[in-house]
């Protein structure tokens, strides 16, 4: 068995852990962004995602994801139906892909159709999701450019701790990327045989996963005395690895504060490691 997780837990993990930080909630326009077309900027992509979900238009929401993400998700769905002896977690994921219920139906579907089905079923598993969606608001703290075609929008929504929404530009248009928790789930299925051979439990996973490398991609200010550093941490478990994105608060007066703008991030990483036990 991969992980012994109940259907309720896995649904909430997928929706809140994997999608809540990429689903953008806003009842008011972000300053200066009112008339932007949905894919003209990373923030516009986020707002377009919100409008699509507010209108319960899942296909329009899925259309804002990068085409490569559709392909990646189809490969993941194909892996889910590759088991002759699926365990509990695999069966739960299969249920979230309904009405696609076989290798043949997945093969004949487009990746965007599979992702739309997965999202629709996942959202339906969360009690009160519509009410949360109705009342939440978006605060954009800033953008961090990792590459010319990759930008992370740092937002604060229903959770007090900011989170990144990753976007990529392709052929003049910006697209949203799958959240890192979702990618970790997908990557795990890409290495399915590794997990099945090890028969890893939650306890085994928690003790065997190690931090391999930490990169500080940048930071955004949150008032005069607080900033948030966006870090990508490479996690490793034997020969299996995956990335985790997270924002870490840095307050004025802390050792990391004076290091935020340094060209060499080595000392900043050391300061963050010491404070957060990374």
Strand order of the largest sheet: 1-2-3-4
Counted by DSSP, the helix tally is 12
Low-confidence stretches: 1-35
The profile of the biggest β sheet is: 4 strands, antiparallel
Helix content: 40-55%
Structural class: alpha+beta
Helix and strand pattern: HHHHHHHHEEEEHHHEEEH
Strand content: 15-25%
**Ends: how far apart?**
29 Å
Average pLDDT, rounded to a whole number, is 78
Envelope shape = globular
Strand element count:
7
Cα-based radius of gyration, to the nearest Å:
19 Å
Describe the structure.
By secondary structure, the chain is of the alpha+beta class. The chain has a domain at 7-177. It contains twelve helices and seven strands. It has helices at residues 7-19, 42-54, 58-62, 67-80, 88-96, 103-108, 111-124, 129-135, 180-190, 192-198, 202-208, 266-276; strands spanning 139-147, 150-156, 163-170, 173-176, 210-221, 226-237, 240-251. A four-stranded antiparallel beta sheet has the order 1-2-3-4, with helices on one face. A hairpin with a 2-residue loop joins strand 1 and strand 2. Helix 4 packs across helix 7 (111-124) and helix 4 (67-80) crosses helix 9. It is globular. The two termini are 29 Å apart. 33% of the residues are buried. Mean pLDDT is 78; it is low at 1-35.
């Amino acid at each position: 068995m991969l992980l012994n997780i109940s259907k309720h837990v896995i649904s909430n993990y997928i929706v809140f852990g994997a999608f809540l930080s990429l689903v953008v909630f806003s009842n008011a326009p972000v300053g200066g962004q009112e008339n932007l077309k949905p894919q003209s900027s990373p923030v516009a992509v986020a707002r377009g995602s919100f409008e699509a979900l507010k209108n319960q238009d899942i296909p329009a929401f899925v259309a804002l994801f990068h085409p490569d993400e559709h392909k990646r998700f189809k490969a993941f769905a194909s892996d889910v139906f590759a088991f002759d002896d699926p365990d509990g977690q695999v069966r739960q994921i299969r249920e979230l892909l309904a009405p696609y219920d076989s290798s043949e139906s997945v093969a004949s579907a487009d990746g965007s159709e599979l992702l739309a089905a997965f999202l629709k079923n996942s959202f339906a598993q969360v009690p009160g999701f519509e009410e949360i969606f109705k009342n939440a608001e978006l605060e954009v703290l800033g953008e961090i450019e990792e590459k010319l075609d990759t930008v992370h929008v740092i937002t604060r929504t229903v959770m007090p701790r900011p989170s990144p929404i990753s976007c990529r530009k392709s052929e003049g248009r910006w697209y949203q990327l799958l959240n890192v928790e979702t990618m970790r789930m997908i990557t795990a299925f890409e290495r399915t045989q590794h997990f099945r051979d090890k028969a890893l439990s939650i306890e085994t996973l928690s003790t065997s996963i190690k931090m391999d490398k930490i990169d500080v991609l940048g930071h955004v200010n949150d008032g005069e005395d607080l900033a948030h550093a966006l870090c990508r941490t490479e996690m490793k478990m034997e020969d299996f690895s995956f990335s985790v994105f997270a924002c870490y608060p840095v307050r004025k007066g802390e050792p990391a504060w004076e290091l935020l703008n340094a060209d060499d991030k080595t000392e900043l990483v050391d300061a963050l490691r010491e404070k957060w036990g990374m």
